Amino acid sequence: MRVGIVTFPGSLDDRDAARAVRFAGAEPVAVWHGDDDLGGVDAVVLPGGFSYGDYLRCGAIARFAPVMRTLVERAREGMPVLGICNGFQILCEAHLLPGALIRNDVQTFVCRDQALTVENASTAWTSDYRLGQQVVVPLKSGEGGYVAPQATLDALEGEGRVVVRYAGSNPNGSLRDIAGITSENGRVVGLMPHPEHAIDALTGPGTDGLGFFSSVLASVVSA
Amino acid sequence: MSVVVEVMPKPEILDPQGQAVLRALHRLGFTQVAGVRQGKRFELEVDGEIDEEALARIEEAASTLLANPVIEDHTVHVGATVHDETA
Questions:
Q1: A85 classed as catalytic
Q2: Which of A64, A103, A148 is nearest residue B70 as measured by Cβ atoms?
Q3: ipTM of the complex
Q4: Do the Cβ atoms of A86 and A33 come closer than 8 Å?
Q5: N or C end of chain B: smaller count of CB under 10 Å?
Q6: Domains of chain B
Q7: Which one of A93, A119, A143, A196 is the catalytic residue?
Q8: pLDDT tens digits for A154-163?
Q9: Could you count the other beta carbons within 10 Å of the beta carbon of residue A188?
């Protein structure tokens, strides 16, 4: 299985995302933001970082990169897409996921190992977790406050589309402690915390994040 | 001619930048300031006549890229640039 990792100008975590994909047993494929196609990959990760220097709004310019046209089409057809941090912001700007991310309510960048509760263990990226499982992965973002209109939040909750929620104290003012959400079909997932930094005890707080990358293997085989 | 697009966070959306600016103003003694909301102003230099069609295109540009309608409101109007106004 081949998983594309898109690099935008300003992406930071593309290498770690590729390493996580490899650890999970898939083949990472580098995809450039200026490419018109995805090179026939089976799934895509939009990594964290500061694409286009976060100019205008986080993800607002990356969302119109050439590669995004194909990505949005393929995602709507059911290709699994995982957006981490800046990748989550890009998915919201591209309207593949509802809502938006705004500056943390604490007004500072937050960098810490964050406990999360898995609230949907049936998406393409979380099927290797148990419902209610608590995991710890790094969170590092300045604009991680998830906001959406009340009706959208109610719909997300009602349809079980909140994938992970912050456990313990809310780090950034995200409404209803939402750390990550999924699309209606459960194939597109975006979250602010960084599972790709928690796949190896040598370089992270543990291996709790690996499940995101192993889950997608099963989802593509079964699709 | 210039077209000015102004973008503001929606009233119900928290504005941490505005809050930080307000606190700094108070620290500096500008205590009569009761609230700050921080937005963005874009000055677009436009070729040709600015008719209704041109404004409609700029409205489209504003809602597509310059503002995120989920969290921001915007206005579009024909106007001078800041430097023109102060010249």
A1: yes
A2: A148
A3: 0.87
A4: no
A5: C
A6: 2-86 (3.30.1280.10)
A7: A196
A8: 999 999 999 9
A9: 28
Q: Are A83 and A193 in contact (CB under 8 A)?
A: no
| CA–CA distance, B14 with A175 (Å, rounded to integer) | 11
Is residue A64 within 8 angstroms of chain B, CB to CB?
yes
CB pairs under 8 A between A and B: 37
CA distance A198 to A163: 18
The Cα B83–Cα B45 span in angstroms is 13
Contact assessment for residue A25 and residue A211, using Cβ atoms and an 8 Å cutoff: no
Express each pLDDT in A186-216 by its tens digit: 999 999 999 999 999 999 999 999 999 999 9
Q: Which domain holds residue A204?
A: 2-222
Closest chain B CA to residue A97: B70
* Interface contact A145-B17, CB threshold 8 A: no
Residues of A in contact with B9 (CB under 8 A): 102
**pTM, rounded to two decimals:** 0.94
Choosing from A58, A85, A92, A119, the catalytic residue is: A85
Give the number of domains in chain A.
1
Token duo for residue A99: 């809502």
**β-bridge partners, A115:** A136
